[in-house]
Amino acid sequence: MSAKNTEKGSENGSDLQKVVQLDEIDRKILRQLQQDASLSLDDIARRVGASKTPVWNRIRKLREAGVIRKQTTILDPESLGLDACFFVLIRTSEHDVEWAKAFVEALRARPEVVEAHRLAGDIDYILKVQVRNARAYDRFYQSLISEVKIHNVTALLSMEEIKATTELPL
User: Fold this and answer.
1) What are the HTH asnC-type domain coordinates in residue numbering (predicted)?
2) DSSP 72-110
3) Is the pLDDT of residue 122 over 80?
C-alpha cells in the first residue's frame, strides 16, 4: 500500500475523505479477500505472488487505513427460511433532525433491514428488507410506521435475485 493518501472532498470542501492509493499487489490481495476472507495467509501470498510477511503487513496497513472495514460470513437467506426480499421505497414529509434520528434508530434496531440508503430525488429512502414471507413484511411495516411517521411507502417484492455481490470493482 502506498503511503500516499489523497484527500477527496465535496465541491464546497467539506466532508473530506482520504482515498488510499493502492498498488497492484494491494489490489490482488483485496480481490482474494473479497472472494474468500477465510483463505490462509499462505494461500493469499501464493495467489498474489508475494511472500507471507509482506502480505500480512499489507493487510494490516489496509485495515489500519480503513480500506478493510471488517471480515464477515455471508449467509444464504433461503436456507434460513428468509425467502422474501422486499425493496421498500419511502417518502417522508418530515425532514427535521429529530425525525431523521428516530428513523435511523428504528431501522438500525430492526434486523430485517439489511440495507438502508438515503437518496436524492423523489424517493427519500430505500430499504432492503429480508423476511420469511409477506406476513412477516407486514409485521415489519406495521411496527415501523407505529414508531415513525412516514408519508408514503411502496414495497416491491424481488421475484429473482439476478446478481448480488459484496465485491467492489478494483
Assistant:
1) 22-83
2) -----TGGGT--EEEEEEEE-S--SHHHHHHHHHHHHT-
3) yes
